[in-house]
Design goal:
Glutathione-S-Trfase_C_sf, 4-stranded mixed beta sheet, Glutathione_S-Trfase, Jelly Rolls, 12 strands, 8 helices, 2 domains, 6-stranded antiparallel beta sheet, elongated, alpha+beta
Length: 309
């Protein structure tokens, strides 16, 4: 079974683009949730953030964080991380150096600040941070690539730096790359890659989807010993066709739900893997099913009253 990857990040390049580029170059499927800043801060309290920030990468349901760690994992998956320890050190050192540039640039171009303060910080980036970093990278590029004779994720990160920092903020980032011919040549070669050209073409067709409403569902008592949090079907979200309800419920033994009809709709019940018990669902026509932790049950409808416990 193929490993499923899902990236959560803002709808900007910044700390998420290296992972996107690596997946594109390596033909590794990647699904995404992209947030506007407003959407992210409105929902941050409910997100699974191991270190309190994005990006996060979901790998078969497990959540991991830190942008460079994520990119390094993906690079290994697509063959763009050196197998030799010394070449890996060379690639990692370049990646960390470029990451340091992002740490300097991102707060200046994205954070809210008054015009005078931004101008002062941009001057520091344009006159010191970027020229110093680009000159150091030019010196480190002694062959075709940063880590020996093979392409690595360090080279892809240079492309990201050129396209999304140096050329990504016209009028703010004003550094010329003419003084760095080896870096220019490497970036030009990477831009000719069919896989990356396809990615860039699709990138500008990406349409973000906004969160139209967010609210906290309220716990309520139902049945015997059952606590239910209802999102769909809640007064704040009464209609979301074709769904009638979305419930998260906790049941204490002995307890359950009383007789109730299932006519005209279908139910899907998933028992979380860490649940301490099982769930029995039966109707008065003799049908029954017991769910163990991790099980999913789909009931296609019943004309008979049902009970759950």
């Amino acid at each position: 079974m193929a490993t499923e990857l899902h990236l959560n990040y803002f709808n900007i390049p910044a700390r998420g683009e290296l992972t996107r580029l690596l997946c594109a170059y390596g033909d590794l499927p990647l699904s995404e949730t992209r947030y506007s800043f407003r959407e992210y801060f409105a929902t941050k309290a409910y997100l699974d953030l191991p270190f309190g920030q994005v990006p996060t990468l979901h790998v078969d349901g497990k959540v991991f964080a830190q942008s460079i760690a994520i990119a390094r994992y993906v690079a290994k998956r697509v063959g763009l991380y050196p197998g030799d320890a010394l070449l890996a050190l060379a690639a990692d050192s370049v990646v960390d150096a470029i990451s340091d540039v992002y740490s300097e640039v991102c707060p200046v171009v994205y954070a809210k600040m008054d015009a005078d303060m931004r101008a002062k910080k941009l001057a520091h980036v344009n006159q010191h941070v970027l020229p110093t970093a680009l000159a150091a990278l030019e010196r480190r590029l002694v062959g075709a690539y940063f880590a020996g004779e093979a392409l690595s994720f360090a080279d892809i990160y240079l492309l990201d730096l050129f396209d999304n920092v140096v050329a990504g903020f016209p009028g703010q980032i004003t550094v010329s790359t003419q003084a760095y011919p080896k870096l220019q040549a490497l970036v030009a070669a990477l831009r000719k890659s069919d896989k990356l050209r396809t990615y860039y073409a699709s990138k500008f067709m990406f349409t973000s989807r906004s969160i139209s409403k967010s609210f906290v569902s309220v716990a309520q008592r139902e049945g015997v010993g059952a606590t239910v949090r209802r999102s769909i079907g809640h007064p704040m979200l009464r209609r979301l066709d074709p769904f009638l309800m979305l419930d998260e419920f906790h049941v204490q033994l002995p307890g359950g739900f009383p007789d109730h009809p299932h006519r005209g709709f279908e139910t899907i019940t998933y028992l979380l893997p860490h649940s301490p018990g099982t769930m029995l669902h039966e109707d008065f026509c003799g049908h029954r099913g017991e769910l163990a932790p991790g099980d999913l049950q789909w009931i296609f409808g019943s004309i008979c009253p049902s009970r759950s416990r």
